[in-house]
Amino acid sequence: MRTHCSVYRKTRSVVVMTAIAGLLLAGCSSAAPEKSAADEKLDSLSFEELKEQAIEEGSVVVYSFTSRIAAIEAAFEEEYPEIDLIAHDISATKQVARLKAEADAGTASADVAYIADAPIVIRDLVEPGILQQYLPPRIADVLPDEYESPLVANRLSTKVLLYNEEANPDGSPVSNLWELTDKEWKGRVVIVDPNVRGDYLDLMTEVVLRSDEFDEAYTELYGKHLTLEDGVENAGEQWIKDLYNNGLILVDGTDAVNAAVGAKGQEEPPIGFSSYSDLRDNDEEGWALQVAQDVSPGPGIAYPAYLGLVNGAKHPAAARLFIDFAMGDESETGGPGYAPLYVPGDYPTRTDITPPEGAVSLEDLGAWIIDPAETIKIRSDVADFLITLQ
Amino acid sequence: MTMTDTELMLVDKPENRKTPGSEGRGRFRSVITNPVVVMGIVTTAILFVLVVVPLMGLVGTTLSSEGIEAWQKVLASRLSPNLFWEPLANSLTIGAATAIGSVLLGGFMAWLVVMTDAPFRKTIAALATLPFAFPSFALALAWETVFRNDLLGGRVGIVQDLGIAVPDWLAWGGVPISATLIAHYYSLTFTLVAAGLATVNGSLTEAGEMAGASKGRVARSIALPIVLPSILSGAMLAFAEGVSNFASPALLGLPVRYHSLSTRLYGAIDTGNTERGFVLSILLIGIAALVLFLSTRMAGGRRSYATITGKGGRRYIIHLKAWRWPLFGIAGILALATTIIPGLVLFISSFARHSNSLTGGFTTHFWVGESDPKIAQGQPGIFHNPQVIEAVWTTVGLGLAVAVCATLLGFATGYVISRLRGAKALTGMLNILSFLPFLIPGVALGAAFIAMFGKPIGPIPALYGTFAILVIAGAAYTLPFASQSGRASIGQISGDLEEAAVMTGASLVRRLVRVVIPLSARGLFAGGVLVFVKMVRDLSLVVLLVTPATPLLSVMTYQYASEGFAQFATAITVIIAVISITATLLARRLENAAQPWSESS
Predict the structure, then answer these.
(1) For chain A, how far is it from start to end, CA to CA, in angstroms?
(2) pTM of the model
């Protein structure tokens, strides 16, 4: 059984400290600062009570970073015909800017934010109290602690190493990430510029956080110890520097990576980091993308998609009902609320939903699951380090 | 009578009392009761709210402790070379190349169309106004389709497909970025310079020839000074668009790590480093303002460009003789390469089975298909999507509303600047204020407007989420277009016309309505269409301001593109282009009567 922490501070000045403290307290779900009595009351409502109040409110406004919200909207309105869901498809970065501006202006227009970019979300939205956590009572037992707080997460997405299966029918051409810094891969590694896109910056940050593993992987591949260059502080930074110096190619979006790596008919296709779930577009786009397994020290990252309540929401009960819905139900595939997100390569967080077939399990994939609280500590330093490399 | 005399006349009107004490060299006096001064003050106040307040918000953000750190990181740290100085050099190069290239290309086309007897002038004129109606990424995309090499892997472009190796400098980096931006923005300079050249009066040039001046001399000493303001306006707009454009450098520059200030700035904001993004945009604004200031100084020698006078004028034509067809050929190829080719690439790729590939088969699904779970995750074609249809009307409505508001403001700005030369402080301020919004990144301006109009101010209710805030922000954002065309078109109206009206006792309002507006209508109208087109396809400003109540096409394009549905994105882009092109062509039709080169001859 989980234990609720119910330490809520009253003054705004300690909000940030509370939030950080909350993050550090293992098993404590109170990273969200300052909940009003009304919020606490709503949080504790049973599903039936919540549904009743939500129907009274009549509508709910959702900001979503994925366009699949359209399908979720249709499913939600079928389940709850009395409630009008107004969905707004808007990227995570723009959501952050917008929710901040709306909070400053005191005009919260959304009730729920469905959002990625976890490290920034925690720093810019959760800590200042713009978004708060709601854990639907129905799922408390089936959601692992790490996906309950500071906001609930309903799935994990990935940025992992993908290769061209047509040109490499026997499996991944790379078994150790250090190979990408060798001559053979010079000018043949493609990623989205981490100084332009946050999820790729999270990937690079994770590499630095995993420096010890990169150190070991180096020894494993070359049979000798890694010596760091001047101005490089750890093995992770050294790998990144070597990768950049090996003609790493930067592009402006994941589709450019997928098309470069996946296009059929290439003799020496490049390799690159992108979303595992993009393999679903292979047929439609004529790609031969495949995920690289058994890569030392790891193939990339998995990161959460959060559902957060907007502080001051006009439809607080309907907002909670939507979060309950989007977290899925107890059926194997998560039911209608989760169905649009049920694709191979994305991983449901609920322990009672079976991951979609057609993709290796998260365990077998071996992707690093990021810890947003750790990521944010060094993320901007890593961004600065990357800038010096170009 | 010269312009300066006119101003004296205006100031010396009987109902205005002269005040003692003069400004500048003692020739100009402004009186607080002078209606033009009042108009100037009101206009400045409006621009202040629209431009300075958001800018102060930007600056304010960078004065926090994180902001100070960002300043230090950008200007004086180990990051500075890669974060600021190199991107700055690249941006200035891109901006200058875009400005010079656009003036040369647009100027050449305008000269050919307005001043010569080249064949098919109407067609060339129509084509040359179109590139601006395309989104800038369409041209970058077209460039990739033709010149992409094997640097990235994946599919290569047409040239390399034919077995000709494309060097990196031609496929990526500064050269293609500048080329695509010129191809996009020369239509701006064309529109402005053509309007300017159209006012070159035959009697002026003939007078020059009769006095024994050579053709070259006539061009240099008579025609050029007359069109100089429109050339400068065009160059400045092209420069500002060039340095602030994001799509081209992101698409064509990143693979060779060619960064501009705009990619650095958007990158900083997009990775959560807002303060740094704002610092970079303040620097961009400052540097571009400096360039603007210097170029205004450079052109400061001449003060009057009045060519629309009370006297009748005839069109002046250069007979090209043997050069007619070769020059037409050059112009025709340039016009086709910048309009039809990118247009076709855009159109065809919306039918492509595979995104961004023209070799994998075609489908009409993305336009007219019903929802099919096997294609595009069950998304129906855009004609079956009621949101798209709704967005079309909202977008057109927004474009029209912004065009009207911005044009009115631009007219007022232009009028005050050209008629109130005495009040240097006021006109100088207006001049810079009306240009600055160009250099504020749209995202930052949008955020500033939410912060400013999100809560009620006095009698004004909170505007966030309304159509009104989109219109206000749009007017601020497009003001540079409107005021440049306002200045250019009013600057050409000789003061003696208004003076005549003054003599008959006409008030300011009457003079404006009966004399100035009708005479400048064509230029203002052209400016209004530019504003409309800019607004219809702009994304960066509105992306933070739209709510579900006000769906816009450009925002839908962006959403589809970021979700990997490239064909939906291009299909909607085609709709945007069709709206823009229709507006541009319709506008040309409406002004036909007034355009000398459109007369059938």
Answers:
(1) 50
(2) 0.81
